[in-house]
Amino acid sequence: MKINSAEFIISNSVVSKCPQEPLPEYAFIGRSNVGKSSLINMLTNHKNLAKTSGRPGKTQLINHFKINQNWFLVDLPGYGYARVSKSTKATFQKFITDYFEKRTQLVCAFVLIDVRLEAQKIDLEFINYLGENGIPFCLVFTKMDKITRVKAESNVAAYRKKLLAENWEEMPPYFITSSETKVGREELLTYIESINET
Ligand code: GTP
Ligand code: MG
């Protein structure tokens, strides 16, 4: 898909104040610093559309970006600050769970995973949370440029095994990406385009 326009629309912390236009939207979620904002810039071919930082915790609000005038990309804050919690839900900031539970325009969540790391408990918890709430999602492995393709493939295979061990029947759709080299860009955009067309 060709990106003809990408514009920042609004930031906020209240789901009810998000744009009301009934356009399909796709949200990026994952641990702080995994590369959510960088991926939005990479997909849209903009350097600073979404604000990025080497330090975790940069994105603090729900940010809507309108793409090609007819769908939204949503940049969310990272999760993973609350280290220990009694319930899975409390582990994730309230407005993140509000967003996923109330935002009827959401078509698909992209859960970002650092391709270099073994499966992290908090990511598995979040994936299970999405599953329990019936929210469609894909996995996006990030920072592919930091390791070899062979190593990345073997880490993804290990991830798949882990999900099956967590009682998932199959690996969800996934993408291996790098915001540095733009690997995975076409695949992700084609996937979004195919959903937008149905
Ligand atoms: P929060 O907003 O804090 O939750 O973080 P985020 O997930 O939005 O991460 P962000 O895009 O701000 O990137 C965090 C750091 O990782 C920055 O220093 C980026 O330059 C770096 N980074 C992101 N994606 C990639 C990638 O694909 N390759 C490499 N090498 N670095 C990346
Ligand atoms: Mg961010």
Explain what you see.
With 198 residues, the protein is an alpha/beta fold. The chain has one domain: P-loop containing nucleotide triphosphate hydrolases (Rossmann fold, 3-Layer(aba) Sandwich), CATH 3.40.50.300. It is 32% helix and 21% strand. It is built from 6 helices and 7 strands. Strands 1-3-4-2-5-6-7 form a 7-stranded mixed beta sheet, with helices on both faces. Strand 6, helix 5 and strand 7 form a beta-alpha-beta unit. The radius of gyration is 16 Å and the shape is globular. The relative contact order is 0.17. The mean pLDDT is 92. Bound molecules: guanosine-5'-triphosphate (GTP) and magnesium ion. Guanosine-5'-triphosphate binds next to helix 1.
List the helices and strands and how they pair.
Layout: E1 6-12, E2 25-30, H1 36-44, E3 62-67, E4 71-75, H2 88-91, H3 94-102, E5 106-114, H4 121-132, E6 137-142, H5 149-165, E7 174-176, H6 185-197
Parallel strand pairs: 2-4, 2-5, 5-6, 6-7
Antiparallel strand pairs: 1-3, 3-4
Bound molecules: guanosine-5'-triphosphate (GTP) and magnesium ion.
Guanosine-5'-triphosphate binds at residues 32-38, 52-54, 56-59, 77-78, 142-143, 145-146, 178-180.
Keywords: Cell cycle, Cell division, GTP-binding, Magnesium, Metal-binding, Nucleotide-binding, Septation
Domain EngB-type G: 22-198
Family: Belongs to the TRAFAC class TrmE-Era-EngA-EngB-Septin-like GTPase superfamily. EngB GTPase family.
Report a brief summary of the structure.
With 198 residues, the protein is an alpha/beta fold. It has six helices and seven strands, in the order ββαββααβαβαβα.
